[in-house]
């Protein structure tokens, strides 16, 4: 790995650590002040996600018309301001929404800078390192953030604010590469152009739909575990449920590190097998009724998911780098992913309200992933290089 990539990974770890620490800190705050409001935590999560959908037309060009290292710094500063607003008791919905704005700005630069830092041959490996670093930050940030928040919300918010500031400071040392594109005067028409361009590109369409499938599946599965674990595994507290999600995270990190060996860019068709395995493992989870089989099934789900999503991300960045800009491609990706996540969680919420049981919900999710995988296998792109060096 080169110097710039090492600096990026450190900045990303600190920023992702803070993202997950602040999530559990905000939940601790909400539990104290809005315990009776069942709608408040979903609304808070929506306030974070909505920025990725609403700001998608602007954050891509913002990333591609400026040095991406500068965008990384700016995104962390906005996140830090959001955390600071929480420190002075501003409404959490608004403050956490501002952190979502910073995250929406940060994401296109975080992934979009990779094609500028490494060659095409190393793009999957670089994505694997970024995904692995992010998952490690999720594991550490979730657990440590929750522990600090249980002791003191003030200390937790202060820690988050310091981490965002430190991440911004570290990102300053990434080389300022020239902007990839010139400024565009009309963001919405340009975003529509990027959307059309990527969906007309066979591999672009395939990767956008593939990553949307993965993240909407992950979002719904996380909600299902909250209901399924107490009924089937007889878990008695939220920490035990959170522990189950760690096995998915460890699996994704493992799959991300294995992806460069098993699914390089020139063999993108192999992601179809990973998607099929993902659906099969979700069905396997529905058959478990004790803790260790469930943990192993969740680990397998994570591995399949990592093998599936990392090559997809790398392929989309490579396509974006030579068409609409890598930052623009990530912005479009964020738009489609978060829109599908909101839609999938809405469908699940309606199904649960109609009395769908936890096991039936997981079975339905597994069947849906398998069906989409089989349907998508008919439109897999040919095995050829997405982007040729030079």
Report on the architecture of this protein:
It contains 15 helices and no strands. The chain is mainly α and 390 residues long. It is globular and about 55 Å long. 53% of the residues are buried. Mean pLDDT is 83; it is low at 385-390.
List the defining traits of the structure above.
mainly alpha, disordered C terminus, 390 residues
- State the share of residues found in helices, binned by percent: over 70%
Radius of gyration: 20 Å
* Average of the residue pLDDT scores: 83
Largest sheet: none
Q: Helix/strand/pairing class, anyone?
A: mainly alpha
Proportion of residues in extended strands = under 5%
Give the ordered list of helices and strands. HHHHHHHHHHHHHHH
Number of strands: 0
Helix segment tally: 15
Shape: globular
Topology:
Elements: H1 3-33, H2 40-54, H3 56-64, H4 68-87, H5 92-112, H6 114-117, H7 123-151, H8 153-171, H9 187-200, H10 202-233, H11 238-262, H12 271-286, H13 291-322, H14 326-353, H15 358-377
Summarize the structure.
By secondary structure, the protein is mainly α.
